[in-house]
Specification:
mainly alpha, elongated
């Protein structure tokens, strides 16, 4: 499943996350895949797939520039979207590692 990488898609994703975070029943459903929610691993898999697809799109645009058949604006946009997706993924990874380290510091 490819996730579109556009400002409108990002705004929609942030809005959806905001709705999930404000409704406790949504949080419970999101945490329990059997209740119709999605598991963290499936969300993570979808995000990684989207970042990979964004990189592939940027590579394809760069290849078409080499043949002289692409618009430079499209190439720059694809590369910028790919960079943003990778930066976001790295930021989330850093937050997850930080949270894991905080959990390890907790007394038993």
């Amino acid at each position: 499943m490819a996730i579109p990488t556009s400002p409108a898609a990002a705004a929609g994703a942030y809005a959806a996350l905001g709705r999930i975070g404000t409704d406790p029943t949504n949080l419970a459903r999101a945490a329990d895949p059997a209740a119709g929610g999605t598991s963290f691993s499936s969300v993570l898999k979808d995000v990684i797939h989207a970042v990979s697809a964004s990189g592939a799109k940027a590579d394809a645009q760069a290849a078409t520039v080499a043949t002289g058949k692409a618009n430079m604006v499209d190439v720059v946009t694809a590369v910028a979207e790919s960079e943003t997706a990778i930066a976001t993924l790295v930021s989330v990874r850093d937050k997850v590692i930080s949270a894991y380290e905080e959990i390890l510091k907790m007394p038993i």
